[in-house]
C-alpha cells in the first residue's frame, strides 16, 4: 500500500489517470479506516455486482490497468513495488498514447 500511495502521489497533477481501490471483501468501513489510519490518499470502493473473473484473477491484491476506452491493458496478481521505474514509465507511456 505505501508504494501504490506514492505512485498515486506522483501522478497527482495528472487528470488523465485515476486510482481506484476496490474492496472485494465488501467491508468498506474497515478499509476506509485502514486508509485513514495509515494516511493513504487512496479512495476505496465496493463493487455493486460481481467482478468479472478476467479482472479479479486468483490472488489478492490484484492490480488492473484499464485504458480510457475501457479495455484491460494489464492485470498483475500479488503485491509489488509500484514506485519502480518500469511501472511509472509504463503508466506515463500509456497516458501519452491513450
Automatic annotation (TrEMBL):
<dbReference type="Pfam" id="PF13905">
    <property type="entry name" value="Thioredoxin_8"/>
</dbReference>
<dbReference type="InterPro" id="IPR036249">
    <property type="entry name" value="Thioredoxin-like_sf"/>
</dbReference>
<feature type="domain" description="Thioredoxin-like fold">
    <location>
        <begin position="1"/>
        <end position="71"/>
    </location>
</feature>
<dbReference type="InterPro" id="IPR012336">
    <property type="entry name" value="Thioredoxin-like_fold"/>
</dbReference>
<protein>
    <recommendedName>
        <fullName>Thioredoxin-like fold domain-containing protein</fullName>
    </recommendedName>
</protein>
Amino acid at each position: 500500500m505505501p508504494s501504490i500511495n506514492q505512485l498515486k502521489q506522483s501522478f497527482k497533477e495528472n487528470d488523465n489517470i485515476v486510482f481506484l481501490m476496490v474492496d472485494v471483501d465488501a467491508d468498506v468501513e474497515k478499509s476506509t479506516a485502514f486508509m485513514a489510519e495509515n494516511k493513504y490518499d487512496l479512495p476505496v470502493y465496493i463493487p455493486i455486482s460481481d467482478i468479472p473473473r478476467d479482472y479479479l484473477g486468483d490472488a489478492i491484491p490484484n492490480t488492473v490497468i484499464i485504458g480510457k476506452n475501457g479495455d484491460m491493458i494489464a492485470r498483475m496478481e500479488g503485491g509489488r513495488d509500484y514506485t519502480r521505474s518500469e511501472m511509472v514509465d509504463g503508466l506515463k507511456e500509456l497516458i501519452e498514447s491513450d
